[in-house]
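To the team - 2-acetamido-2-deoxy-beta-D-glucopyranose complex, inputs and output below.
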Amino acid sequence: MDLPGESQTRRRRGRRNPAAINRRKTPVDTVVAVSIICFQVLSIQAAAIQFTKEPKSQDALHGRSAMLRCEVSDPADIAYSWLHNGQPLESSERRFQEGSNLKFTAVDRRLDAGNFECVAQNTASGEMLHSTNASFNIKWLESGGVTLKEPSSEGEIESSAPVTLRCHIDGHPRPTCQWFKDGLKLTEKSHQINNKERTLTFKSASPDDNGLYYCCAKNAAGHVCSNSNFTLNIIGVCVCVCVCLCMTVC
Ligand SMILES: *[C@@H]1O[C@H](CO)[C@@H](O)[C@H](O)[C@H]1NC(C)=O
Ligand SMILES: *[C@@H]1O[C@H](CO)[C@@H](O)[C@H](O)[C@H]1NC(C)=O
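Output:
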């Protein structure tokens, strides 16, 4: 009973006050206008290329596989390509584009150094977008031999004089090195071992040091031993004297 009365009152008020009707219409117009603007903005955004996946800088192991990913929100009409240090990437069996991603069957610490970026191009509109640059932190470990560092040649090795051997195993991150004499591990207590230089020094070499020396090293990329040994063969003073005596006597 009350409701019709109320609605009549509202209608009457409405009729009596046309300004109120105008005020009511205004927000509607605004909503329509905003909707149109929003729709236009949305259509522009839909047309623009947007990456949903960009290649990320990452750790990699030399010789192992890796993948750099690239993806856009709307892949219709999108052609992907990759740049390496700003240059178009040449595909090989080792490193090739697979769909939109870049696949490495075996990361190479020299060939894969530097920046990789993904380029997405809309083949219909010509629009092009470059991803961020990504690079590999390539971990590696490479074997080498044991060489004589000091003196410069084996012929110059003298008893009671310093001798330094160097381990040519290299890698990233810097490998930690261990020395072996006749298969037994040498300790830093009994020997002068420089881990940074990867050297083993005898301050005063003696025939007691004679033996077969090699080194092994490890880091995050693995563990290897030297690919050549060094045989230290110091002729003692006593031996020299004996030989001299022998020769004199003979
Ligand atoms: C990526 O790196 C290359 C060179 O390596 C450079 O030319 C290019 O401008 C870089 N791109 C970005 C987005 O930083
Ligand atoms: C080094 O010496 C060890 C122990 O005698 C031996 O097993 C190894 O084969 C040698 N390595 C090379 C490269 O000669």
